[in-house]
Model the fold of this input.
Amino acid sequence: MSEPLFKRLALIGIGLIGSSVARIAKEHGDIAAEVVVSARTQKTLDRVMELGIADRVEIDPGKAVDGADCVMLCAPVGAFADLATRIAPHLAPGAILTDVGSTKVSVIRDVGPLVPEGVHFVPAHPVAGTEYSGPDAGFTTLFQNRWTLLTPPPGTDEAAVEKVAELWRRCGSMVEIMEPGHHDRVLAIVSHLPHLLAFTICGTADDLADESRQEVLRFAASGFRDFTRIAASDPVMWRDIFLNNREALLEMLARFMEDAQAMSRAVRWGDAAYIEDKVERGRKIRRSLIEMKQA
Ligand code: NAP
Done:
């Protein structure tokens, strides 16, 4: 086993993502010698101790980061500005501050200015997840063969970037560096827009008259079911993602609505070739995902 990368890793927020990192750190032993966890509620911290996935828990995030050489923000992105304000006076010079937030421009905007001199800020996003949340939801293989995107602002200490990259490699992830704005546009189309569509379609089905609604549930296996899985995700997390990637999401939604209009026209006018071509393109994308082992 290699030496632990860090002496003390502080995880601020311990849901699906934070608790997966904590489980890996405890199980592999090559990420951090000690894991300290903070969350919003004592109930979550009690559960973390029951699960045995941290060495210590602290309700005060400032106390949790005291003496940590790596701090990872694992709460919803809307809480980052407040959390950064609370932990900033406790961050040790030379420490690395990183995060797992699903939006990156907003995280750099909200957290960047609060990072004390001498602390290295390396924003990151593991592109892996499930619809489950909370400390019970995590598991050690979550990041296996999934990408983690690092979006360090210009001038970030290269050794710190490499250490965060190594942390994610030790979690089983593949790592790529990306410009934050580009990250947000890519994630808007591959993740944020599909979630928006899933929440919307579930709402539309729920608005149907009682009788039809019952039938939606009975015959859900015909396609609707896949949307409901995505739509089961945490409301606060997704509220924060939509509001913090507003421009990229609205741009992708506008493009989608144009394409949906075109499809609607094709259906209305019986343009069979158009419809067939779109379905064929969908199948090709699915086949590529399977070939790239990302399905
Ligand atoms: P989660 O399961 O919903 O857990 C959120 C955690 O953050 C909980 O421990 C919660 O504490 C804590 N928290 C919430 N508000 C807080 C606050 N104001 N101060 C301190 N702690 C707070 O979340 P998750 O799915 O792990 O997501 C965490 C982050 O990862 C988010 O930024 C999300 O965008 C990003 N992410 C998520 C996924 C995904 O698919 N889930 C994938 C990649 C990245 P309590 O339990 O005490 O309330």
Remarks:
- The domain at 182-291 is CATH 1.10.3660.10 (6-phosphogluconate dehydrogenase C-terminal fold).
- The mean pLDDT is 96.
